[in-house]
C-alpha cells in the first residue's frame, strides 16, 4: 500500500529561499521550516531577514540568514558558497526575490529595466545553475520560480515586470527540459493578488481590492496561507512527475 505521508514528507531537506525577508518569500520559508526543512534565507535587508528567522525559530524551526546583494554578479560564486555553509547544498531552491517598480511606460529608464530583469529573471537562472551540479550528484532537486498573473496578461504600469514574469514561465520550461533528466524538477507558482510589500499600493485602495476579488472565481483575493499546500506538493516526492509547469494560485482569476 502506498505511504502517502512519505510522498509528502520533506523533513531534513535543505532549502534556499531568496527574498525570504518579506512577502511571499517569507511565507514560503516559514512553511518549509514548519515542515521540517532546514532553511537558508537571503536578501539585502538584515532586519527583515532576522524577523523571518525569529518567526521560524519561535515555531521550533531551523533557519539561517545570509545578507547579500543578489544582483552583484561578481560575488555570485562566493555567495552561493555561503548559502551552502549552514546545512550543505540545498535540495530545494525557491527563487522568490522580486521587484515591481510600477512606473508609467514613459518613465522607465534603462537602469530600471535592467534592475527588474536582473532581480526577477537573471538572478533565478544563475543561482540555479550554480546549485545544479550538487543536485545532479544527489539525483534529486526541486526548483520553484515565482511567476505572476502577468506571465500571461498585461497590467498597467508594469511593463518590465510583465516582461520578466513572462520570461519566468518560459525559463521554467527550459530549466525542466535541461535538468529534469537528472531528477531535478523545475516548476513555477503564479500567485494572484496577495497582500505583500510588492502589492501594498493595490491593497491600500479598497475599491480596487473589491474589484480584483470580483474578478476571481472564488470571490476573494488571496491570503498567504493559500500558498502552503501548492508549495508543499511541488517540493515533495508527490510531484516527481510534474515539471516545467506553472501553477496559478489565483482563486480562478485566470479562469474567468
Would you kindly provide a written description of the structure presented here, covering whatever features stand out?
The protein has 256 residues and is an alpha/beta fold. Helices cover 43% and strands 15% of the residues. Helix 2 links the parallel strand 1 (14-18) and strand 2 (38-43). Helix 2 (23-34) runs parallel beside helix 3. The longest helix is centred in the middle third of the chain and has 29 residues, at 110-138. The protein is globular, with a radius of gyration of 18 Å. 43% of the residues are buried. The model has no long low-confidence stretch (mean pLDDT 95).
Rounded to the nearest angstrom, the distance between the terminal CA atoms is 40 Å
Query: Which residue ranges are poorly predicted, with pLDDT under 50 across at least 5 consecutive positions?
Result: none
How many DSSP-defined strands? 7
- How many DSSP H or I helices? 9
Strand content: 15-25%
Strand arrangement, major sheet? 3-2-1-4-5-6-7
The name CATH uses for the topology is Rossmann fold
What is the CATH class?
Alpha Beta
Quickly give the CATH architecture.
3-Layer(aba) Sandwich
The sequence of SSEs as H and E is HEHEHEHEHEHEHHHE
The CATH superfamily is identified as: NAD(P)-binding Rossmann-like Domain
In this structure, how is the largest beta sheet organized? Answer: 7 strands, parallel
